[in-house]
Amino acid sequence: MSTAVKKPAATRGATQKKSGLRVLEAGETLFKEKDLANSLYIIQKGQLRLFRPKGDGFVELAVLRAGEVLGEMAFFDDDGSGGRRSCSAEALVKTEIIEISFVAFSKTLGTLNPWFKTIVTTLAKRLNRANGRIKEIESNSLGYDAGGGKSYRFIKDNELLKILCTLYLVYNAHGEKDPKGAHLINKRMLQLYTKDIYNIMEVKFEAIMHILTSLNLLEIRNDQEGLPSIFALKEIDYLKSLFTFYNTEKFLADDKKLSISTKSKIFLEEIYFAIERERVEVEEPETKNPTPFKIVNVSEIVADFKNRNMNIGIDNLEDAQDAGIVGEAYLLDAENVKLEVDPGKLSKLLPIIRFMDLFQKLNKEKREK
């Protein structure tokens, strides 16, 4: 006796796509919430974020990696929505996926024993009920601006502190060092603490890990099965420095907090690299009073910005001056510029400034998207 497989809601009256390999670039949308669904997907390589619009921002749901499946819920949709997507999906990095049309999936399912379809359908319904969790996490999607009004914050400062502290403690307690001194942690161990114990949203945790990867402080390596599940942290003390910094900033008035613009950060980076590579003249200031400042010739840096049509100049260092990283500038002539620089403070704060810049851009991107 054969048992017919019910035609999924998404296939009724919908144009069917063909199955096959698809490649998404970083930031490319796979599908949007309420789109008509006619395929499910298996991630071969890369990462996808699942999210739903909420007011001016988004409710982040999950991050999926290689080997995981998405889009399958619409196949079993019986709620009258016509097989619509329950959320949106977007590539975080360049991602390869296998697309399987619902027609092809239905034919395959129809060849299996009836009890197998019963199990799959039951699991799908249970997962569908889990969407109710969205209501529980919506309150975490709004932060408050300096004026006390509501504004969307993808990751609030207290959430960032929680993530940084958890990462430092887990790597310090469970990390295994490789020959180069990097601390290695398996993804499952991190998930145990971040997700199961401390209830940190996975998509926010992944965003911070992506920033650390962008700064070349974290490397994701493949395990013995070829899956990207080993997280290698190159500088564990950097996490401690970040946590200490943000924890200190939390108690400062807004006008006392470190605030460095992107242009200022770029200028400071060039000064730091030039000093490290001994490409600039560094002189002692002509004063009898002890001072941490050195006189640095930044003429070549300023000229390079001009040649590259980058609108960056000494005026962009005003915030760095307020922070005590740089001092006075001396314009000897149109092509000769010298600047007071505190090399020690620059070296200490630049890694934090880089993280701050990416963190601020992350929140801005999520708010404006």
Can you characterise this structure?
This protein has 369 residues and is α+β, with helices and mostly antiparallel strands. The chain has helices at 102-110, 114-129, 133-137, 157-174, 187-197, 202-214, 236-249, 262-276, 299-307, 318-322, 343-368, and strands at residues 20-24, 29-31, 39-45, 47-54, 57-65, 69-70, 88-91, 95-101, 142-144, 150-152, 176-177, 183-186, 218-222, 228-233, 282-283, 294-297, 326-333, 336-341. The protein has 3 domains: 9-140, Jelly Rolls (Sandwich); 157-252, Orthogonal Bundle (Arc Repressor Mutant, subunit A), CATH 1.10.10; 262-345, no CATH class. It has 11 helices and 18 strands. The protein has a 4-stranded antiparallel sheet with strand order 1-8-3-6. The chain has a 4-stranded antiparallel sheet with strand order 2-7-4-5. Strands 11-12-14-13 form a 4-stranded antiparallel sheet.
Helical amount among residues, as a percent range?
25-40%
> What's the multimeric state?
single chain
Find the CATH topology of the largest domain. Jelly Rolls
Order of helices and strands: EEEEEEEEHHHEEHEEHHEEHHEEHHEEH
Can you tell me the CATH superfamily of the largest domain?
A: Jelly Rolls
Biggest β-sheet: count, sense, barrel?
A: 4 strands, antiparallel
The overall average pLDDT, rounded, is 82
Task: Report the sheet-strand fraction.
Answer: 15-25%
User: What is the terminal separation in angstroms?
Assistant: 53 Å
Which spans of ≥5 residues are poorly predicted at pLDDT below 50? 1-15, 138-150
How many helical elements? 11
What is the radius of gyration? 26 Å
